[in-house]
Amino acid sequence: MPQYCNPPLGYRNPDDCRCGASRPCGCQSYPCCCPVPTGTLFPTGVTGPTGPTGPTGPTGPTGPTGATGADGAVGLAGVTGATGPTGPTGPTGPSGEAGAAGAAGATGATGPTGATGATGATGPTGPVTQGAAVTDATGTGDITTQFNALLTSLRNAGIIAN
After folding, report:
1. What are phi and psi of 154, to 5 degrees?
2. Are 137 and 145 in contact (CB under 8 A)?
3. Which pLDDT value is given to residue 161?
4. What are the pLDDT digits (tens) for 73-103?
5. What's the confidence (pLDDT) of residue 13?
6. Quick check: helix, strand or coil at residue 3?
7. Which of 8, 18, 33, 54 is the most exposed place for a label (fewest CB within 10 A)?
8. The pLDDT of residue 148
9. Is pTM beyond 0.70 here?
């Protein structure tokens, strides 16, 4: 009968020669396979854990250069440079026509008042009419009545206007 090893179902260990043992078979290290009838295949078992990563291989040749990328955005404007020296003054041009007369300006402020003139001679004294007699206010009487009597007397004498 041929020997067939399909881990994890085709196990055989030198210390435990039972097919289907729970230890890995290690087919390439030592013969551990179970006898299998001709023409019968065992189903594929569960995939084992991934082995350690091998060493990094050599760097391959550089590939072709890619297409040129799009132009980048325009950068910020630089600082304004210093102002250059003033150039020489050019020749004076011809005089233009005279412009129209401007509007009249505002009236100026009034000037200061002049000095007071000399006082004239005193005129003759006119007749003065004596007013009615008004008694002095006494006691607690009405002051308004007394004052109105005085005003009437002055009006009648022509000293104050009616």
Report:
1. -70, -35
2. no
3. 86
4. 998 998 999 999 999 999 998 988 988 988 9
5. 45
6. strand
7. 54
8. 86
9. no
* Residue ranges of the chain whose pLDDT lies below 50: 1-32, 36-37
Give bridge partners of residue 34 from the DSSP assignment: 4
Helix (H) or strand (E) holding 21: none
DSSP line for 12-76: --SS---TT-SS---TTTS--PEE--TT--PPP----PPPPPPPPPPPPPP----PPPPPPPPPP
For residue 10, count other CB atoms closer than 10 A to its CB.
21
CA geometry: angle 99, 103, 106, nearest 5 deg: 145
Between CA 39 and CA 36 the distance in angstroms is 8
Q: What is the pLDDT of residue 25?
A: 45
Q: Rounded to whole angstroms, how far apart are CA atoms 28 and 10?
A: 13
Question: What does 96-144 look like in DSSP terms, one character per residue?
Answer: -PPPPPPPPPPPPPPPPPPPPPPPPPPPPPPP-------PPP-TT--HH
Rounded Cα distance between 84 and 80, Å, is 12
Between CA 46 and CA 53, with CA 49 as vertex, the angle to 5 degrees is 145
Instruction: Output b/e per residue, 47-66; b: 16+ Cβ within 10 A.
Output: eeeeeeeeeeeeeeeeeeee
Angstrom distances, CA of residue 85 to CA of 43, 78, 88, 90: 96, 21, 9, 15
